[in-house]
Amino acid sequence: MKRVLIGALLSALALTGCSVSVARGNERLANTDGCKGYVGVTVDDGPTTDTWVLLKTLQEHHDTATFFNVGAKAKAFPDTVRSEASVGQVANHTYSHPFLDQLTDDQVFKELLGTNQIIASLTGTAPVLFRPPFDRVNTSTEGIVHSLGMTTVLWNVDSGDYAGKGIVRSFAALKAGDIILIHDGIERTRTELPEALDQLKAHKLCTGKIVASTTPHFAWHTQKFGDITFNAAVVPTPAKG
After folding, report:
1. Could you give phi then psi for residue 10, rounded to 5 degrees?
2. What's residue 24's pLDDT?
3. Range of 17-21, 24-28, 213-217, 223-227 with top mean pLDDT
4. CB count in 10 Å sphere of residue 1
5. Dihedral of alpha carbons 231, 160, 175, 46, sign
6. Which residues pair with 1 in a beta bridge?
7. CB-count exposure of residue 159 (10 Å: 0-12, 13-18, 19+)
8. Taken in order 3, 142, 9, 235, is the CA torsion positive or negative?
9. Angle, CA of 165, 156 and 222, to the nearest 5°
10. Tell me: the pLDDT tens digits for 76-115?
11. What CA–CA distances, in Å, run from 158 to 15, 29, 104, 106, 167?
């Protein structure tokens, strides 16, 4: 499902419906007490009818995540998107989850812009983070991403939940600065998320906010393209309110 990003262009192109009741106000979403570092939890392919379970778990643990939403699903579950924005970041994962490198530039632009418009209409803020489906992107797509004011964000830890793997072991191995990939709509991921977040606390790690960075973040190494990187970092999540 998740394969190698086409080209080493990301290392060359630096940044120049179910709803859930979510606490608002002065609550600090990321518990920073005793944190020795921050990790980014990213959730792909939502929202779904079960996203509220992930949101409830994150809220109960005072944690946050970045939700890379598919535009068509965001349109179908507007209340869920609003709840995601209260718990974490809502980001762009295209409108229909296509192979972007097989589309024309005009089609790519519509996939990204349409999703941004939907999310902005629901949350009041257009996404600043983007993740290409299947990691498939090309130079012209990256140009469109940047023209819309977004940064492409990959990950350096793949939980493998889409292949039936549990997520607890991957969370237990996280280090400060890591960005992990999990998916919405997978029952085992929903079930194991509480224990996975407890693993972070045991290692004095906190979930944080993903932001654009001029320092490349290593994703993975490939034989063909060498090191794949992206320009993002994880920082403490500011308190709401």
Report:
1. -65, -30
2. 38
3. 213-217
4. 12
5. positive
6. none
7. buried
8. negative
9. 100
10. 999 999 999 999 999 999 999 999 999 999 999 999 999 9
11. 23, 24, 29, 31, 9
